[in-house]
Amino acid sequence: MANILIVDDEVGIRELLFEILSDEGHDIVLAENAAAARIARNAARPDLVLLDIWMPDTDGITLLKEWSANGQLTMPVVMMSGHGTIDTAVEATRIGAIDYLEKPIGLQKLLAAVKRGLQRPAAPGAPSPLTLAAFTRSVPLRELQRLVQQVAVTSRVLLLRIGAGSLAELAARSFQAKGAPWLDLSTVSPPLDVNQLQACQGGVLFVPELSRLARTQQKNLAFALERLERYDLRLVVATDHTLDALVREGWEESLVARLFEVSLAPPSIADVRDDLPELASQLLLHLVEAGEVPRRQFSTGALNTLRAQPWSGGYNELRAAVKSLALGTLEEEIGIADVRRLLIPSTEGHVGVSLDQPLREAREAFERLYFEHHLRLEGSNMTRLAEKSGLERTHLYRKLKQLGLQAGRRSEEN
């Protein structure tokens, strides 16, 4: 039979539902609040969740939003409430709940809802990308999400003023409707055409750093900007440059002025350092749910070690590090030693770049350090690495092979 998670802060209701559904032959896991529900959902991987709306720590609607945002809403959820309204039921259904039960819950209604839920096919495909909605316990990220949503109501274009440790992609993903297409314009070098825009209809076009765009890519951006409404597109661009600085670099002033009409300054990872354990944990959960890494979890010590790192490369560097840590350990728990081995390599026995070496050897040592750093920083995205290093792609692959480094060949538009 099925594995069912029951989440309710009232012990009497938990016990009643436990007895009824156990008698039906189901395996039951109980959680008294949202914190316990998160742990139980990750450990038990339930086939169905019965989720109370009104709970003392985090309400059920917020928890449902969190699961939806971080790709964990892979099981049917039936909401329960003794104080529900039609609006609440509609919102829960919009987020992803399959049913809504009013308390006191009748036996036949309960069994019918459970039966319908268990008959639903599993959600196909990989989970949606992470958005700000996944981080319900971070005040700065919740505020950023509200700001992004506020802008989305009235504008199709958003500029993010960023610095080191940028969370630009996470903010941009929150400008995107669930399941909508996504295209990173910095990965498109040939001239953009209407067929590509039509394929992205209803989605988001993204530029992680305006100053890195080549002249042809600037023309692509201008081409897309003129057609946002026609193809129901949104555009999110990020930069650490001012308007005047971009113009001095040769950008068309009218284009830059349009991009700077609506802008936000999202916090950096340094600004939300206390929330970094949640960021890392949610990233790991998302990678597990997507099937990209084995089932892993961080120890408290590992999370504290991650929090102490600078993360100048921002969200992309953190995501790449989390994935590397999950793939680089055979144990289910990622510990302090794993983090230190990846992020704080020992210098003992390491030659480094010595000025006493022959020029050829010193140059090779420096190149290896340079590309190791930027591979991690860009999450092995070869398009971005080619742009940053100024090397043509074929030359870049050849160089990495000579240095004994692994070149990434994954899809670079996602």
Automatic annotation (TrEMBL):
InterPro entries: CheY-like_superfamily, Homeodomain-like_sf, P-loop_NTPase, Sig_transdc_resp-reg_receiver, Sigma_54_int. It comes from the Bacteria. SUPFAM superfamilies: CheY-like, Homeodomain-like, P-loop containing nucleoside triphosphate hydrolases. Keywords: ATP-binding, Nucleotide-binding, Phosphoprotein. Residues 3-118 form the Response regulatory domain. Residues 104-327 form the Sigma-54 factor interaction domain. The modification 4-aspartylphosphate is found at D52. The keyword Phosphoprotein applies. Pfam families: Response_reg, Sigma54_activ_2. This is Response regulator. It comes from Aromatoleum anaerobium.
